[in-house]
Amino acid sequence: MTTLWGSKKKDDDDIDDVLHVNGGEGSDNMARESEDGPRPRSARASREPNERDRLLPRNPRPPHGDGYLDPDDPAVSPYNLWTVRALRALSVIFLAITFIWWVLLLVSIFVSPPGLSTRGSGFFDFAYTTLTAGMLLNSLLFFSAPSLAMRVLQGVIGLIIVVDLIIIVSVARIRGEEGPPGIASVVWGVFISGWCVLTDRVVAWGKKEEEERLTGRPETRRTVREWLAVITATTILSIYIAITILMTCTLILRSRDASLEMDGERYFVDGDKYAVHLACVGNSTTSASGKKSPTILLEAAEDPSEFDFEHWLYNAYENGTIDKYCYWDRPGYAWSDNAPSPHSAGMSADNLAEALALAGEEGPWVLVSAGYGSIVSRIFSARHFRDVVGIMLVDPLHEDLLHRIASPMRGFILWGWGVISPLGIQRITGALFGGRSREDRVYGKDAYQGGKYIKAQLQENLVADSLTRSEVSTARTVQGVKTPLVVVSSGISCRKDEDWKRKQEDLTKITDNLVSWDIVNKAPHYIWETYDGRQIMEKRLGELVKSGKSGKKA
């Protein structure tokens, strides 16, 4: 008896399982059909099993009296629909693609892969890709909790990025700086924002569809967990909107700055990969003996040449001390594009030589440089020593001290500032409330806030104690020993740093023809910011020019 009862119970359980899976019709309905004879079954009871049925548990919760599942049953899910599952799978694939692109852009900041180098900083396309990955992650994390608020916010982000795309494509300078990688990153961002709106809408439809099918009505309430998911998702998207608005404001400032007129021209160098700015003032004269007066070639320190350093030289030109001078912006400074990474001081020296050749400018040269620019100037002098008739170093940086700008911590900080530079918070507040002008942002006191400048500083940091140090050490061994040399040092720097003073003295020995070594007592690193510093610099420059006119060369 026990065996027979157990077998009968098992058969009954199997029948119940089949009834649950095929629509949840009870045994009363079967009895009614047996008594009344065959009758048409409901659509739910008569339909063939489909792919959604396989996702239902074998023993779901007992159905309500009407044969429907409880709204809180885990089986009531939009994931029952293959459309929803396919969209989620595609979102995961898009996230993987975005992550690969993000890694490539990150690497290109430090080492530019072929085809991914841009004439801009590279931080903007990295920022757009990061934003795109954030939208996809947000969509996947809260995939099963769709809401109208999320769709609206995602749509707003997409519209703002479309505005950014229009600005980038419309302004020639920005379009050239961002290049194909930047434009592709923005287009991808537009596509993904639209994709997120679509998937959220489809999931909302699928959720309603499954609720009607399995519970008999669409659910109008949300659980606490669902409300928390919606609130978190909308908060994140609101932050993304603020980010995109700031990036748009930064692009507007960049488009305005691109219209700032410049002296001189931009010349494409290094196989036309990027352009550098070069300008010359005045005209060379020829003496009765047929000697051409030297042209002063200016190399700035850690800021663009136009920021103060060129002003004192223009005064020397106005005073008749010199006949002609040329100045340029290293890659990433002022009107010059960024170069691909890595970029060393020797590469900058070659860029300068190529730009001078394209401009038709010829020596003889008297090189005037300061700070880090002295490294570039010394390499240029060694590679073109026959055309250099004088060297003036203003509080120069010694190659043994390059490690100070090559520290990993400094590089990490520069990279961090570069990553947030597309937000342009300082630039925007400066323009709105600080009265900052285009000149301030392009080459003035706010130039350090721009992504191009930060990228240039980062490039100098990455190779300062390796490639650049090797180049300048080699330059010292081949430097023309008869070239007249002037060194002007900062008294403040020498008093504060004994190593700096010793290295200043060592730099007076890079040639055997030292004209003078002056230590300006109250002058800072930027010696030309003081009256005494300008006076001494102009005086020594005049001596070098006279020496050059007399025909003394390396």
From TrEMBL:
This is Mitochondrial integral membrane protein. Pfam families: DUF2417. Coiled coil: none annotated. The chain crosses the membrane at residues 89-111, 123-143, 155-174, 186-206, 227-253. Residues 1-71 are annotated as: Disordered. Residues 30-56 have a biased composition (Basic and acidic residues). It comes from Cryoendolithus antarcticus. Keywords: Membrane, Transmembrane, Transmembrane helix. SUPFAM superfamilies: alpha/beta-Hydrolases.
